[in-house]
Amino acid sequence: MSKVKNNSGYHGVTEPISLSGPTEKYLMQTAEVEKYLSDARLDERQDEAILREEVLGKLDQTVKAWIKKATRISGYGEQFVHEANAKIFTFGSYRLGVHGPGADIDTLCVVPRHATRNEYFFRWLHDILAEMPEVSELHPVPDAHVPVLGFKINGVSIDLLYANLAHAVIP
């Protein structure tokens, strides 16, 4: 989701609580916590971090191919299909960089208005994921308070949420 930069120089629609950076005390405390996590082996190994990045890249490619298929199925012309786009955004512990080894990646899939939740997300995208050999443990939960597709890609757990915007094209 794009951030709006206003005339005051900050991003978003509201003012930040503070523009000051961390104090020396907070920097020292952060270093202590990072050392503790490393010593306790609660931080992620480099090969795990690389795998997560590869999985997110694969998911991004899959979602982009899916939205083009959804656009074509919706009856739009080839020019519109060419411009069709969907975006994924991470959030939660992964986005904050505080996840541990084996933690899932909370991901939001932002799609244009024609890619409806039940027909396109929980049916078409689900079917595409189900056919991928690297995807396992695919569990759609369409009736949850926050509807989600849960699955693993190459052993990495993903919770994929859906957001439909009132735009014809997602930039």
UniProtKB/TrEMBL annotation:
Q: Which PANTHER family match?
A: POLY A POLYMERASE, POLYNUCLEOTIDE ADENYLYLTRANSFERASE
Identify one Pfam family in the record.
PAP_NTPase
Q: Carries keyword Cell cycle?
A: no
Q: What is its EC number?
A: 2.7.7.19
Q: Which stretches are transmembrane?
A: none
CDD domains noted in UniProt: NT_PAP_TUTase (cd05402)
Can you name this protein?
A: polynucleotide adenylyltransferase
A single GO molecular function, which one? metal ion binding
Q: Which cofactor does it need?
A: Mg(2+); Mn(2+)
Q: Which residues form the Poly(A) polymerase nucleotidyltransferase domain?
A: 12-171
What do the Gene Ontology cellular component annotations say? nucleus
Alphabetical list of Gene3D superfamilies matching this protein? Beta Polymerase, domain 2
- Which processes are annotated in GO (biological process)? mRNA processing
In the record, the note on similarity to other proteins reads:
Belongs to the poly(A) polymerase family.
| InterPro entries named among the record's database cross-references | NT_sf, PolA_pol_NTPase
Q: Where in the cell is it found?
A: Nucleus
- What's the main place this protein lives? nucleus
Q: Does the keyword Nucleus apply?
A: yes
Q: Which UniProt keywords apply?
A: ATP-binding, Magnesium, Metal-binding, mRNA processing, Nucleotide-binding, Nucleus, Transferase
